[in-house]
Structure formats: structure tokens, C-alpha cells
Amino acid sequence: MKIKKISxxxxxxxxxxxxxxxxxxxxxxxxxxxxSQGSFKGFGLPPIKxxxxxxxxxxxxxxxxxxxxSKNYTKARELFSSAADGGLDxxxxxxxxxxxxxxxxxxxxxxxxxxxxxxxxQNDIRAQFNIGLMYRYGLGTDKNLTEAFNWFYRSASAxxxxxxxxxxxxxxxxxxxxxxxxxxxxxxxxxxxxxxxAFSWYEKAAKNNLKEAQxxxxxxxxxDNIIELNFERAIESYQLAAEQGLAEAQxxxxQLLHxxxxxxxxxxxxxxxxxxxxxxxSKEAIFNLALMNQYGRGTTQNYISAKKYYHxxxxxxxxxxxxxxxxxxxxxxxxxxxxxxxxxxxxxASRYNFGEADFHLGIIYRDGRGVSKNLxxxxxxxxxxKEKGIFEANQIMNxxxxxxxxxxxxxxxx
Length: 414
What we know:
The structure is a single chain. By secondary structure, the chain is an all-alpha fold. The protein has a domain at 331-406: Serine Threonine Protein Phosphatase 5, Tetratricopeptide repeat. The chain is 58% helix and 3% strand. The protein has a 3-stranded antiparallel beta sheet with strand order 1-3-2, with no helix packed on it. α5 crosses α6. The model is unreliable at 8-14, 16-24 and 401-414 (pLDDT under 50).
């Protein structure tokens, strides 16, 4: 049973954090600005610069997200730049994203890094996470795992920041940062390796519904070394990640339902999760679907479907694929017998030391099925099969030795 692993995930850079304003902060919208204390100020009064830059930021957001106006990154960048130049620091995060991804301008990672840094130093969790990510992978700055860890750590804690209305808002800790901290403890990146701390941080990120964290948490729960083995909790964690569409989790959950402890096995559920993982092009899942169709586990036995699935992955160097296709064509399972194809697949399987492949090649050459009959070659394949533990090959070899040579009549008396 092969359990899939996720060792290192590059998390999405674009983060949106939830926040809320403190109750004593009054948002200065159109009405509170122009109808102060219930009386109209009048449009003859020019707005102060702070209000102009705030309006620029809000219009830039409309262009950036394509709300109420057509999406236009160039206009958004111009407006965000004007707002930032006027002292509205919050515009720097969008400018960072624009230069990070080359939205309406040339991609410029060092410049993106500098824009993020302005807000990261003002406790913006999204910017702190992006700075950590850029340090971790050397994007727009020199790779520095220690700095990456420090910025992830800051972003993984609740912090207050000031928004465009000059209001203090509390931000939710970044689950992506919690996950990155867990990975860094898990693999000793920029910090001493510590599986227990990694487990704790995976737990935090998993509680925030991050599927990659749920996946890695499940893996640690199945490793009976530092963390206490907990099969039921691991299954639950895999299920959460699988339901969010993580193909590796879908495959691992299917594997446990397929091959796990007998009290937990559920082949029908396994088949269902293999189907979901296969839909995301998991080659191992496709192989197991073929296997379950071949033997009728979790589904009705169907050799035609088995053959179809095997053929989808025959170029993936999964050795068992070749031996099973050999059986299908040799015995005519759901398809007419095709000795030539059987020989080809058994030969491929033989290269991976499958004794059963050698045994069947011995039979094929002994009987001349799809090939010229060759007892010497047959015996060599039977010998290989015997050396690989196929004891039936020894019995057939004894039978071959007792047979008369094919040219026996040459020596008969007239």
C-alpha cells in the first residue's frame, strides 16, 4: 500500500484576511462626511487630501476587482499609486500584488517585495505572509529561511492594524503561515527540526480548514514514533482534506479503506474515493480502479473496465499494470485471447522481476502461443520463475526433462 506524501507546498500568495472594526471607530462615508451633525456642509467645500486618496483607493479597488466597472489593472495601478504617494499606505498591498503577478504592468518581484514590506511592518498579516513566502523561496529577495520563519510567525498570530478609515481592526491569524511554520519545524527549514511543534502547528492550520495541513496531520498521526498513533483521528483528518478536493488525501483515504485494518475496510467507499482521485489524474488511483474492477471489489467485476483503466496508465511504469494486462490478454478476460499482446506485456513485467511473468512466458514458448515454439527458451523462463519463488515452474521443468526431443525420429531404425 503506497501512501501519498505532500512534502512541500507553495501556498497561494494572494491572501484575504477577515477583520472587523472596533465599535468606537466611525466609518467616514459620504453621509458622515458631508452631513456632519445633521447639517449639510455643501459641495463648495473642497475635500481634504486624505478623503481624495481614500476615494482613489476605493475606485482603484473597483477597477482591480472588476466590480461595477470593467476590470482594468492599469487604471487600478495608477489610482493605487496616487493613493500610496499621498500617504495611504494600505494601497501598497495591492501594488505588491500587481507587480508580483505583472497585472497591467511588467512583473517586478523586488518591487513587489518592497510594497509588501511597507504594510508588513505595520502589522498587515497578508503582507507579512507574502514577505515570509518570498524569503522562503527567494522571490524578489535573497532566500533566507530564518527571515521567512520570523515573518510567518508574526503572521500566524492575531494582530491589530489600521485600515483606510484610520480605524483599528483585528485580523485573523494566517492559516497559511501556520502551515508554513509546521513545515519548517517538520523538515528543519530555518529552524531546528521538531516534529512535536510541527504537529501542533499543523493542528492549528487544520482547525482553520487548510486541507494541506489536514493531510500532513493525518500522516503524522499514522507514524508510530514521536506522535502517538491515532488511526481514527487520521482517517477523520484525511476525510476533511479529501472532501475539500485534495487528490492525495482522496487517494490515501481510499488506500486505507481498501487495504487498511479489516475492521475498517470498506471497498465501496474506497472505490468512490479512487474515482475522485482518478478524476484529478492520480495514476495510482486509476491503477487501483483497474484492480478493483478486475477482482470485483467495491464494484461489480468488469474486465472490460479493468482493461480500460490499465491502458490509461500503461506508460506510467507501474509494474503491476503489465503483469495484469498480460493475464487479461493471455486468458481472454473481457477480451478475445491475444497471445502476441500477452507476450509483450509479460516481457515488460519480467523486467520488473515478476516471477509470474516469467512463468507465463515459459508456458507461451513451451506451447508456441503467438510465438515460435522454443523449449530451450521456455526452460530458461521457467528457471527464472523458479528462482523467484514460483514453485510450479519446477514441476513443469521436470516434465520438460522427461519429454522426448523433437528430432527423436532421426534416430529410429529403418
